[in-house]
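User: I'm curious whether this sequence folds into something compact or stays loose and floppy. Could you predict its structure so I can see for myself?
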Amino acid sequence: MFFPIFGGKINPIVFFKTTNGGVFMSDGNRYNIIDELRGLAVVCMIVYHALFTLSQVFGMSFAASALDFFKPAEPYFAGLFIFISGLCSRLSSDNTKRGIKLVVIAVAISAVTIIVLPSFGMYNYEIYFGILHLLALSILLFSATSKFLDKITPFLGLIIFLALFIFTYRVPQGYIGIDSFGREIPDVFYSVPFLFFLGFPSENFFSADYFPILPWSMLFIAGTFAGVWASKGKLPSFFSKSCIVPLQWFGKNALMIYILHQPVIYGAVWVVQRLIGPQ
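Assistant: Here's the prediction. I'll summarize afterward.
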């Protein structure tokens, strides 16, 4: 479960702009393919969350089966969104401001899912460190380290951080490395209750949406190196073409859709529950 990012410097794009946002080239034209890929990730997120709600709240077997079928794809569309979010951070004029705003939104979502939803009888929705939390800290981390990262060539940086993403992918499961080249991480790291945001969840930790710093910030930073080419207009020309125009709307309005879609789903489920009664 997950989501966000938007923003832009080249032809400045306001952080919360939802009517004409997008990823722009230096000549003012949009990178339409990037908007569409981000929109595809948004649509996949909506479907995933809808199935999660129907299966967890209503206990509908068809939704549970569909969720099980869809679940293996989640890391891919989530990863696509995180990578593009990193790319877009290279196009922002003020990542610190964006990061702080996103922290506020992420904290608000945690408050709603941990405090408000249980009062309506909706449990197992608690989000302690979801994709918004990840992106907020990743943006701030990038803002703080961008001068150092700028010293690394884009291609080398992309390769290094993609490799780090793969190398740390199983950290939340207690393992680092790849197959025979990997090692188990000492249990002591997972015995500290408040290290879950780094990728070391304790045995009883639960978050309905969980995207820790390790490995996902590595993928975000990898995206920032691709963003160097985007900011200089050096991506291939086909990135400016439109393939599936409706997806652009979802991509340009990603943040607002992410903020609103979950309350809409939760609200609709709550209303239907009250209308049809227990199942």
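Summary: DSSP finds nine helices and two strands in the chain. Strands lie at 175-176, 183-184.
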